[in-house]
Amino acid sequence: MNIFQEIKERLTLQEIVRAYGIELNRNDMCICPFHAEKTPSMKIYEKGFRCYGCGESGDTIEFVRKFFNLNNTLEAAHKINEDFGLGIQTDKRPTKSEVVSAQKIVQQRIEFEQRDKQAFFVFAEYFKVLQDYSKLRPESEYEVPDKRFVEYLQNFERLDYVMNRQIELLHNPMNERIAFLDDNQEYISNIAERLLEIRHEKEVVRETPAAEQTAKNIPPEQKTENKAQTAAQVGGYKIIGNTAYKNIRDKAYLKYSSALSPQIADRLDKTGIKFSGKSTSKMTTFTINKHDLESVRAIAADEAKKFTGRNKPQIIPSQKQMTAGIKRQSQSNEMTL
Ligand SMILES: [Zn+2]
């Protein structure tokens, strides 16, 4: 056991912060010493802390290091050792074999740090998402809850727990921290995948107001048909495709006008290319495997050539080109936006 672990075994961070004169409320929350605030938004755990206001977080040792503005965590550990009279012996010199293995570990550590940081960012981003979702609580028990609120209920506790574990282990030996990442590898990947999905959803949903705007601007005789179409779309879009979104590995996204998407979808089906799509009245986003990018682009280009409708659709392979496409359209006035 190293000095960091021993400190965390013998003292809780709650005890330490109280001893340093910080007041904790019943929920172990306190005024954050690292940013200016009037109401407590820092939670003190047994072996770590997290501020929900400024985002500072870390374990016991890191708290003391930051609080006293010390140069490194070893200084912080020594300070705790002295202030609390723990008497942990710290002047042990490393043996030769310890030095050799330490050198080997350097490379491993670099790789580990990268992985650990990525996991942290994934957790933190999902944490923010779930916090937003928590605000969608139904007003009465009879109301069908928003599925995002359900997602919050189903995932928040575990996420909070895993985030705290990661913080607690901050100064534990690397192999324990690697074991933590290994144990949670699948969980981390799943969250990362979900975050991609959420970004993708946002992208699609953002188009809905524009689609509604289009519906308002079209002549009355066309309006009825368009209304029905809109009603058929759940939450502003409909899902198309020949496989579930989650089944597509190495995702790539292509956007095409929804006037063209049925033909493209049909061709992909016949060619046996797996895809999942989200379709608004204006735009369809195809999710495909990266390896199929060129084939799908070729098919879409081909279908666009064949297309002879009044509103000849644009090929829009990326966000950047989408903006350019819209500019072109408004200049030539070929397509109602
Ligand atoms: Zn703070």
Task: Write a concise synopsis of the structure shown.
The protein has 337 residues and is of the alpha+beta class.
Detail the topology: elements first, then pairings.
Elements: H1 3-10, H2 13-19, E1 29-30, E2 42-44, E3 48-51, E4 57-59, H3 60-67, H4 73-83, H5 96-134, H6 147-168, H7 174-183, H8 185-205, H9 208-217, H10 220-232, E5 238-241, E6 251-257, H11 261-271, E7 275-279, E8 283-289, H12 293-306, E9 315-316, H13 319-332
Antiparallel strand pairs: 1-2, 2-3, 3-4, 5-7, 6-8, 6-9, 7-8
Helix pairs in contact: 3-4, 5-6, 5-7, 5-8, 7-8, 11-12
Alpha carbon gap, first and last residue = 66 Å
Provide the CATH topology of the largest domain: Gyrase A, domain 2
Class by helix and strand content? alpha+beta
Strand and helix order: HHEEEEHHHHHHHHEEHEEHEH
Q: What is the CATH architecture annotation of the largest domain?
A: 2-Layer Sandwich
Give the CATH class of the largest domain. Alpha Beta
Q: What is the typical, i.e. mean, pLDDT?
A: 81
Q: Give the CA-based shape.
A: elongated
Number of strands: 9
Helicity, as a percent range: 55-70%
